């Protein structure tokens, strides 16, 4: 009995690449037959695997010779569709709390669970609906141990010296990012009641990262936009109308560290899900997840709001505090200068040259004297303070 094929994936293979699928299946069958398996046994094995609900994608479950490299065009098109589909579904569910459908409690649940729903949905679509098209997935070697200390004693003196320089730059980056994210999370508009702990948080991150460095594991750090989004998820938000414009304001926040602790514990338990089922999550789904995080972080971002003013008529400007206090030309000057600084940071932070990435923390430090020494010569200090303020 021939192996069942999905019509949608056949369309992708045929019209986006033009290669006959029979050649691929013939190649796979001949590869298995070389191992001494008969054709009937091969067909029965494939039928049994495909009829099982627990069967994963072929590239994860097959034990024979690797299949030939898939066409690049259909993989690229499908990756784009899966990424945009994940972004669309997650953002639609995130905005569902503003819709008039269903009960308010159900709308809140769908909005809070937008990410897992979209990731599971498009992972199943990609892994089962397009199983003939090979997609990029997690690379995991179960034979390698995660908790294995590197041989640091074998390093030369020059390597140790260069590592110290790089470590100093990374410590500056951690210090700047930690303080920026903590300041955003503890902003006055979030109405947090409990006191801040900037130094204790930084000390805790340093201790944890020291242990992670001994095993060559990734570091943890306060990340934007995850931390402000976490505060937003724990907040009670109300919509208010002012001069015909609708804006959201935070009434109170359920301040607790249990949610962060629980999320970290679940991340640790996710190691038990390797290689299955985490390898069923294609990389385009993760790219859509990151786009969703970036898109949701734009809400309430003053730089993005001021960039949108360039495309709006002056009569439709929202009644924000800086529009009431700062002349329109000064606002656009400040926005343009901030965009130039952002492009400079992106040029160094996203450069393909590793040495340019190493000096990225220094570029961030240089932004401080630019803000306090250079910008006041272009825009008056009172206008800068008004635009830097949140209210």
Protein described:
It is built from 18 helices and 2 strands. It is mainly alpha-helical. The chain has 3 domains: 71-136; 161-281, no CATH class; 301-390, no CATH class. Strands 1-2 form a two-stranded antiparallel ribbon. Strand 1 (235-242) and strand 2 form a beta hairpin. Helix 5 runs antiparallel to helix 6 (104-112), helix 7 (114-129) runs antiparallel to helix 12 (283-297) and helix 13 (302-309) packs across helix 15. It is globular. The relative contact order is 0.09. Mean pLDDT is 75; it is low at 1-68.
Give the neighbour order of strands across the main sheet: 1-2
E-strand count: 2
Largest sheet: 2 strands, antiparallel
Strand fraction equals: under 5%
Query: Approximately how much helix is present in the residues?
Result: 55-70%
Shape: globular
**Global structural class:** mainly alpha
N/C terminus separation: 70 Å
Low-confidence stretches: 1-68
Per DSSP, the total helix count is 18
Tell me the number of structural domains: 3
Features:
disordered N terminus, globular, 18 helices, two-stranded antiparallel ribbon, 4% strand, 3 domains, 391 residues
Sum this structure up briefly:
It is a multi-pass membrane protein. Helix content is 60%, strand content 4%.
Helices and strands, with pairings:
Elements: H1 7-16, H2 21-33, H3 39-51, H4 58-61, H5 72-94, H6 104-112, H7 114-129, H8 157-185, H9 198-214, H10 226-233, E1 235-242, E2 245-253, H11 258-269, H12 283-297, H13 302-309, H14 321-325, H15 328-349, H16 354-358, H17 360-378, H18 381-388
Antiparallel strand pairs: 1-2
Keywords: Membrane, Transmembrane, Transmembrane helix
Subcellular location: Membrane
GO biological process, one term: monoatomic anion transport
């Amino acid at each position: 009995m021939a192996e069942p094929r999905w019509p949608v994936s056949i369309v992708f293979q045929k019209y986006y690449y033009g290669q006959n699928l029979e050649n691929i299946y013939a190649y796979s069958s001949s590869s298995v037959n070389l191992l001494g398996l008969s054709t009937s046994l091969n067909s029965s094995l494939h039928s049994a695997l495909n009829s099982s609900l627990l069967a994963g994608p072929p590239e994860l479950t097959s034990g024979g010779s690797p299949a030939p490299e898939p066409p690049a065009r259909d993989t690229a098109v499908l990756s784009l569709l899966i990424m945009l589909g994940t972004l669309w579904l997650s953002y639609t569910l995130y905005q569902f709390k503003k819709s008039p459908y269903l009960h308010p409690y159900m709308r809140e649940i769908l909005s809070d669970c937008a990410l897992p729903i979209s990731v599971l949905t498009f992972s199943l679509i990609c892994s089962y609906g397009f199983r003939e098209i090979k997609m990029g997935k997690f690379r995991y070697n179960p034979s390698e141990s995660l908790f294995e200390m590197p041989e640091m004693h074998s390093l030369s003196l020059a390597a140790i010296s260069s590592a110290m320089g790089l470590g100093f730059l990374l410590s500056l980056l951690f210090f700047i990012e930690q303080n920026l994210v903590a300041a955003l999370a503890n902003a006055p508009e979030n109405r947090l009641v409990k006191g801040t702990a900037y130094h204790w948080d930084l000390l805790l991150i340093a201790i944890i990262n020291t242990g992670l460095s001994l095993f060559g594991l990734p570091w943890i750090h306060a990340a934007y936009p995850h931390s402000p989004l976490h505060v937003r998820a724990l907040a009670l938000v109300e919509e208010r109308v002012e001069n015909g414009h609708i804006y959201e304001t935070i009434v109170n926040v359920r301040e607790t560290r249990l949610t962060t602790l629980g999320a970290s514990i679940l991340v640790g338990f996710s190691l038990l899900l390797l290689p299955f089922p985490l390898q069923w999550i294609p990389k385009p789904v993760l790219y859509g997840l990151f786009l969703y995080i970036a898109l949701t972080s734009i809400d309430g971002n003053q730089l993005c709001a001021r960039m949108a003013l360039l495309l709006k008529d002056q009569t439709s400007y929202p009644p924000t505090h800086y529009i009431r206090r700062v002349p329109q030309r000064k606002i656009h000057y400040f926005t343009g200068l901030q965009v130039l600084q952002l492009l400079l940071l992106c040029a160094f932070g996203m450069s393909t040259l590793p040495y340019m990435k190493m000096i990225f923390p220094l570029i961030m430090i240089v932004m401080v004297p630019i803000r306090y020494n250079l910008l006041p010569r272009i825009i008056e200090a009172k206008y800068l303070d008004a635009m830097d303020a949140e209210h």
